[in-house]
Recover the amino acids of this structure.
């Protein structure tokens, strides 16, 4: 069921389509009474197994409640089908952000630790994601910077406790995204454990560091073969100054043999911090060096990330986290009680460690405020006695009070005086008529046309249908489009597959963007040959 702008769903009104995939569409909706924004996920294909999987996704995310996981808040009925109501994340996905922002090595590590914190929280509840990839990590803008949030638990699997589904994954069936799937998940997605997610985390860390996929390929079969044989270009060959601990974390996660792989998120965190060295064995079978990636433009902004502590904690007040849900960051802003939320690699119910000296500083500030307040009250109470109290020379102050009002004296009425003879008033001189000045002609300014630039959209393979900002262009790749300067979301559809990516249009020159369907990457420039 497709929704249009202005449609009402339960207590919500549809504002726009955010994205569409093979099985679902996601809309931005607004609560009719509260005015808050949310994301609504609806299925585009129907069937009991698909319906059950959507409900499974909602249950998985709703039970986690973690700063680094997109929250599911409700399930609504839309024409007899379930829809997941989630928190609306205004920022881009990690996949898009890697094209839109520059990252230092420190920021890349900070970003990944946030993703790791969310996955660790899921594993602590016995839930395996099974579809971790940059497109399923959303960046939530807060005043402190971006906070990564893991999304889309549609393929989640419960490894202990009550199962999330019954028989929805057939034995021997591969489920997930090929470039990020562990070898054992390719063979049988129904019998995997946390180590499958660790493999995906290694692929994500590789891509954050190198801006390339660890396991590319022209088609699914080539990708599967590269994953199964562990063939990839070592990250250190692409980033020569890569620290040993990050190189060990990547290679330790993407080991083909799951028994030689980093087993859990806690161990991965220790390897990243350099507290534990991971034995890597023989070097991987490497692929040929790929062509260089075009450098990011000089005007691409750096990514600002919310700071994290040594253990990955990011306490962010709820009032700050909700700012991006309020339009214009000002008018109609809703206030919320400030509550610190733990987003650490520790269990979710453990509060973050107190900062040293924080309590002493707070006590000193409170004590100083009380002293100043007491002195102010004392001065107000004793008034001009303050100089005597302080031992200064006494000053005499004369205080005058206004006399009480006098009673009115009665006055006897006098004889009325005779009125003077009336005098005819002289006529006032009339001004000579002056011709009106001509009114200036008002010239209505013509609004300036928005600055546009030419953009060329390409793809491999070509002939993909193009939509820009949710509107079909009627064109297919390769195509030249004139778009206003700024950022736009481009959607391509080829062979039933729909993809989204972001392009930056600059008035200074021609912009070219190519999407490679085989690798799932958007490239700034011409398509690779």
């Amino acid at each position: 069921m497709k929704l249009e702008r202005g449609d009402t769903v339960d207590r919500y009104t549809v504002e726009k389509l955010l994205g569409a995939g093979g099985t679902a569409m996601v809309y931005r909706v607004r609560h009719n009474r509260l005015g808050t924004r949310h994301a609504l996920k609806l299925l585009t294909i129907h069937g009991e197994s698909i319906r059950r999987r959507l409900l499974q996704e909602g249950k998985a995310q709703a039970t986690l409640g973690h700063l680094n996981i997109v929250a599911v808040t409700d399930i609504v009925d839309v024409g007899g089908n379930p829809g997941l109501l989630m928190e609306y994340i205004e920022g881009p996905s990690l996949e898009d952000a890697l094209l839109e922002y520059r990252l230092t090595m420190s920021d890349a590590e900070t970003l990944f630790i946030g993703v790791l914190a969310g996955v660790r929280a899921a594993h602590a509840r016995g839930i395996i994601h099974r579809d971790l990839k940059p497109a399923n990590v959303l960046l939530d803008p807060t005043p402190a910077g971006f906070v990564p949030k893991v999304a889309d638990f549609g393929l989640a699997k419960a490894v202990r406790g009550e199962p999330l589904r019954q028989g929805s994954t057939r034995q021997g069936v591969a489920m997930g995204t090929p470039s990020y799937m562990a070898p054992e998940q390719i063979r049988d997605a129904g019998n995997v454990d946390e180590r499958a997610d660790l493999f995906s985390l290694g692929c994500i860390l590789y891509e954050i560091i190198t801006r390339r996929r660890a396991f590319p390929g022209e088609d699914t079969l080539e990708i599967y073969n590269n994953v199964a044989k562990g063939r990839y270009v070592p990250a250190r060959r692409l980033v020569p100054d890569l620290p040993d601990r990050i190189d060990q974390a990547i290679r330790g996660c993407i080991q083909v043999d799951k028994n030689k792989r980093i087993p859990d998120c806690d161990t991965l965190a220790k390897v990243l911090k350099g507290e534990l060295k991971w034995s890597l064995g023989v070097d991987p079978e490497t692929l040929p060096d790929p062509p260089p990636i075009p450098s990011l433009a000089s005007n691409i902004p750096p990514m600002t990330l919310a700071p994290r502590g040594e253990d990955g904690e990011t306490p962010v007040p709820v009032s700050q986290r909700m700012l991006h849900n309020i339009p214009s960051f000002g008018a109609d802003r809703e206030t919320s009680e400030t509550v610190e939320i733990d987003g650490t690699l520790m269990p979710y119910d453990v509060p973050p460690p107190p900062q040293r000296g924080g309590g002493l500083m707070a006590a000193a500030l409170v004590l100083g405020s009380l002293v100043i307040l007491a002195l102010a009250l004392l001065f107000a109470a004793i008034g001009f006695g303050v100089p005597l109290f302080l031992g200064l020379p006494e000053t005499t102050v004369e205080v005058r009070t206004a006399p009480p009002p006098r009673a009115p004296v009665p006055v006897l009425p006098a004889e009325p005086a005779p009125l003077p003879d009336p005098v005819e008033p002289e006529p006032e001189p009339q001004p000579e008529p002056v011709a009106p000045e001509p009114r200036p002609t008002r010239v209505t300014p013509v609004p300036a046309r928005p600055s546009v630039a030419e953009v060329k959209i390409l793809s491999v393979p070509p002939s993909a249908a193009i939509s820009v900002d949710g509107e079909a262009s009627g064109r297919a790749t390769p195509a030249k489009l004139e778009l206003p300067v700024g950022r736009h979301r481009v959607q391509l559809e080829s062979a039933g597959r729909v993809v989204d990516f972001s392009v930056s249009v600059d008035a200074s020159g021609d912009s070219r963007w190519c999407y490679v369907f085989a690798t799932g990457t958007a490239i700034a420039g011409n398509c690779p040959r």
